[in-house]
Amino acid sequence: MRKLYSILIVLIIVGSTKLKAQDHNLSVDASKSFAEIQPTMYGIFFEDINFAADGGLYPELVKNRSFEFELGLMGWEEPNSDRHSFNQNSGKAQLVKYSDSTNNHNYVLVTVNDPEGYELINQGYRGMGIKKGEQYRVSFDAANKGAISAVKFELLDEEDNLVSSTTVPVNSINWKSYETEIIPSETVEKAKLRMTFEGTGDIWMDMISIFPKNTWKGRKNGLRKDLVQLLAAMNPGFLRFPGGCIVEGRTLAQRYQWKKTVGPVEERETLVNRWNEEFSHRLTPDYFQSFGLGFYEYFQLSEDLGAEPLPILSCGIACQFNTGELVPMQDLDPYIQDALDLIEFANGGPETNWGKVRAEMGHPEPFQMKYIGIGNEQWGPEYIKRYKEFEKAIRAKYPKIIIVSGSGPFPDGEYFEYGWEQLKEMGAAIVDEHYYRSPEWFRENANRYDHYDRSGPKVFAGEYAAQSVAIASPENKNNWETALSEAAFMTGLERNADVVTLTSYAPLMAHKEGWQWTPDMIWFDNLQSYGTPNYYVQKLFGTNSGTNLLKITEDGKELIGQEELYASAVTDSNSGELIIKLVNTSSEEKSVKLDVKGTRLGSSGKMMVLQKQDLSAENSFENPTNIQPVEETIKTGSQQLEVSLKPYSLNVLKLKMS
User: Fold this and answer.
1) Which residue of 74, 97, 156, 423 lies most exposed, with the fewest beta carbons within 10 A?
2) Which reaction does it catalyse (predicted)?
3) Contacts of 331-338 spanning 24+ positions with Cβ under 8 A
4) What pTM value is reported for the model?
5) Which residues belong to the active site?
């Protein structure tokens, strides 16, 4: 009996100790701001990876519409034409080069021998997503060289049933643009286009396009509405574009050249996407960039989102994970001139050379660009040498432009240390850091910036995402553990807002059948899209960034993950609110008492909770809101409140201050 009594006493002591360990008494002084939260604190990183542009944000339905892929008829099929025989009885399509075009190199010559037997099929980007009752613009250029009277466009479903059709008369022997519309009678995720012809003979065709009319802001051939709405809901402070490694290219010839992405869409030169065969587990040889989504559209999207545009340009080094090709220093001037011309394109008046190009595209007012990035993940002495030349030229002509430099692809190690040492010595304004690491790394590094030099360069956390398996693994998941770990880490970014001024998750988007890299923040197919748990973490921080940083402490010490509790605190001078972010990464509920000094609180507040008991849980097309924020009302005292934090939860408290 005495032995049993002793065991009970021990259990009671252990139980009470465990309960006590879950209690936290926190304190924040709302009258003492330690730094301003920059409007750019939480932003968006966009890269054309995972079919994020063509086939995604840029919703053209016809793949290889201008016959510019390396295999000119890639994406097109002639089911009734034997291309291996000398005589194609029904007809044939063959590629022809323009004699005087600069960037649009090819068109297709279609020869129709049997109008009842010949057809040309386009499969789209893993099919064509079409919606019942919605309007789609059909357009093409043609020169009728034979006795063809009309071109018929038909949309077919997955079983080749007719969904909609339209017939367009072609009446000119010379090149002419034609346009009509088509309205599907059914919603189909993987439709295809069938083109047939009335009459016989030759017809030249180019820029064959089907585009939804229901785009973002209703713009003609504009962006995919549901995807932009997801971005707008994040309240992003900046938009970094056109990507990371895609800027560099495998070779310098394949680098992203912004000047080839502006002006008339039909004159933008198609380029192979550097991700098309990068990963053996996801080869996509049909991945090219049409640049229908080009630099003008990126600037326009930034403006629509109320986000600062942050373009990244090649520094004259191809991707160092591929060829690492270097432009010789004596040949660097054209690359530097590209940067200077881009600033003129964004900010120059209509009387300037590049400002005139922007104005002619429909935006006479400057975009007021403030930032420009030079290089992506380059490292070593060759990067520093080239960066110095860019910086000298930009500062001389545009001293107010803020230049973003890079510290390489890793958050530590020799490349990282060397880059930081050199850039700090140069007095660089902002250094871009990237980290793709395990969830544990993110939780353990919430204090990463606590001891950074406050007088040195500012930090751009430009690419980060917790990897559930390993970097570049096709098995990575956007599960709740990765999102929760990123939330814990982000409290550390926010607590150091005097050093960290821009942050963005990467990559942004992925097509469910066209992806190369995981994890990704937003997933989509041809009809639908959804935000992952990682998306909702980013959204909660971005829509509750505040304006002024406060210190939040426990027993006089800043809270940076003691006992699996992470926290940050800000005030919002616009809304008059105190905003507290609390992340509980433990499997136990935590009771938090908060003592607020320097202000009085309203009688109630709001608490948004993002939580799931199962760390492996994900959102999906079938259950897109499996993990999403839930809003609660909480009672407060004039200067105190008490809340319970569920296990594995991100909690955002919004408290009115009087």
Assistant:
1) 97
2) Hydrolysis of terminal non-reducing alpha-L-arabinofuranoside residues in alpha-L-arabinosides
3) 332/386, 332/389, 335/386, 335/390, 336/389, 336/390, 336/393, 338/257, 338/258, 338/259, 338/313, 338/314
4) 0.95
5) 377
